[in-house]
Amino acid sequence: MDLKESYTNVRFRSLKIMECLEIEDYVPQAIDFVSPPKWNLGHTTWFFEEFILSQFKPGYKKFHPVYDYLFNSYYNEKGDRVARTNRGALSRPTVKEVIAYRKAIDSVMQEFISEDIPNECKQLIILGIHHEQQHQELFFTDLKYTWSLNPLYPGYSEIAFVEDIEVQKIDWINVDEGIYTIGHQGEGFCFDNELGSHKVFLQDFSIRDNLVTNAEFIEFILDYGYKNYIFWHEEGWAWINQNQMEMPMYWIVQDNEYFQYTLAGLKKINPNHILTHISYYEAYAFAEWKNCKLPTEFEWEVASDRLSWGDRWEWTSSSYLPYPGFTKNMAAGEYNGKFMVNQQVLRGSSVVTPAGHSRKTYRNFFHPQIGYQFNGIRLVKK
Q1: Does one domain contain both 290 and 235?
Q2: Which of 150, 193, 267, 316 is geometrically suited to a Cys-Cys bond with 297, CB 3.0 to 4.6 A?
Q3: Is the pLDDT of residue 212 over 60?
Q4: 295 by DSSP, 3-state: which?
Q5: Residue 181 and residue 137 share a domain
Q6: pLDDT in tens, 111-142
Q7: Is 104 exposed, middle or buried (0-12, 13-18, 19+ CB in 10 A)?
Q8: Considering 133, 148, 163, which residue would you say is the last residue of a domain?
Q9: How far apart are CA 264 and CA 155, in angstroms?
Q10: Which domain holds residue 71?
Q11: What are the φ and ψ backbone dihedral angles of 29, each rounded to 5 degrees?
């Protein structure tokens, strides 16, 4: 697939996955860590306008003088921006105007990509394509959080029951002690935080092939797992008590049965399905309760070729830190480096990750209290 086709396909998909929305769905922002669909459409368009057209197309004139302020996310070098918490307060530009903005930029971009452009520009376009795929994934996680607050329990579609993945059996995979190479190698795209291929020494370990199920976590709940401080980090213990946590995000109890909100509406929990929407704090506590631990990101990557993965982003016990020799990608506005503090690494991908956007060296990252991503728990024996 050539560059122009890749660009066209990813831009089309962003609009396609939002086709079922009503106009009212494009604007609300339920909490600071989610963004409205309309803002995502504008931001991903701004990325191409700012980093490609403004820098590489001679004589290019910005579509609108205020869109830099409205649709910049965290790029400090690009100037002031609307506060993240206020993205949902932007009733204007309208959805129609944002879509017109997308069409205008796409028209210029498609013509520009057909020209003889420098390799640096091509690499930034490829980064922009993967950046948009990140926001396609966030569209589903953000929409689910916003809709979960609605007592009507709206559904994205009848076939969007993405928690419906059943574990048939539990296997343990043994990995020998040794020195292993970590990080992205060879050709093909990767984000800057995957670079810095390096050696690590690992002791032998046993890792579970399958992820933790709802049934296992229900046992943790019934065994007063949320009431026993011994399983929790001090910060995690404070967090669950401050927020009165008694079960995972999106779970509710009706008539003494567990239900969960899904993108197909409210569904009764199937005990054999894979657990999802768990914070790092909860993942750690559950592992302690099972007398196991979470894998390091290095253990996960070394074992990945022998694992069944791709249904859930998987918490690791590793802090999000740079690899040896890491340098910030300043061409795209300090893309990942500025976030390397107070966050945990997740590995793999999930059911809402766009096709072709995952690889075993991919490093996702979130703060330990965040559970709205489609994530899960994989165990390693102590």
Answers
A1: yes
A2: 316
A3: yes
A4: coil
A5: no
A6: 999 999 999 999 999 999 999 999 999 999 99
A7: middle
A8: 148
A9: 4
A10: 3-148
A11: -130, 110
